Amino acid sequence: MSRPTRILLVTGMSGAGRTTALKTLEDIGWETVDNLPLSLVDRLLSAPLPEGTTDGARPLAVGIDTRTRGFDAEDIARRIDKLREKHAVEIAFFDCSAPILAQRFSATRRRHPLALDRPAADGIERERELLRPLRDASDHLIDTSDLTSNALQHELRERFGDPSPSPTPTLLVTSFGYGRGLPRNADLVFDMRFLRNPHWIEALRPGTGLDQPVADYIAADDAYEPALSRIEELLLALLPRYHDEGKSYVTLAFGCTGGRHRSVHVAERIASRLRAAGFSPSIVHRELAREMPAIQETRPGDGEGQS
Known about the structure:
Layout: E1 7-12, H1 18-27, E2 31-34, H2 41-46, E3 60-63, H3 73-83, E4 89-95, H4 98-108, H5 120-136, E5 140-143, H6 149-160, E6 170-177, E7 188-191, H7 212-219, H8 224-244, E8 249-256, H9 262-276, E9 282-285, E10 293-294, E11 297-298
Parallel strand pairs: 1-3, 1-4, 2-3, 4-5, 6-8, 6-9, 7-8
Antiparallel strand pairs: 10-11
């Protein structure tokens, strides 16, 4: 039979996006199997295909979690090592911070599979310990704490989609508020708090950096254009070097106090300039996304902050 071109074991914390990942991989052409005991994977790979089918040449994603029959992370890690003697096997581990996981279970009213009669926090802690060997052995560690479902799907499409080489790294431009901490996966961080703050203008405060009056106010700052020109110059010098060094994914993060005005506008403008230079960045506005459905949850809103 024709072997899969790629084998990916998809695992991680319950509620961290594993199911979304499997559905997205299926959408982009992977064959997916969920909760298959690892002892049966080798049998699956050696099974003959029905005459006239070519599915065996497709990449294969196998979902594994703590609900899988006979789950033992250390034993699974050993089985993976044996599989790698015959096949090109990778592990994608989906992680998330404990407070966000607890919020997701609360929002969906689902019970954690390891805490059916106890608080979700107990199951999260136990599961993290059980999965540690797989996390340590992972080839792709994807933290979804700050990702919406759409942002996760985009990252998966970029990472596991068409493998044809790109002359530039895949770019994600994100805005954020310092009040909620730095983005977890940021490679380059730019602080926009030196620009004048629309938060202090009553008519502009309810808006965001996506609104034209807010954008005009920010762009009128004397420091605005010199700063953006220097940031653009720096990025155009650095991004090709990242690619030359083999870095396929680069996240650029722009922050301000609340993540609603200055960081949002500058992220949009820098992304526009990068597109004009031949790049294809995606944009995620972390704090604005609080009002959008996240992976298996709607994140509770924080208090209003200064932007």
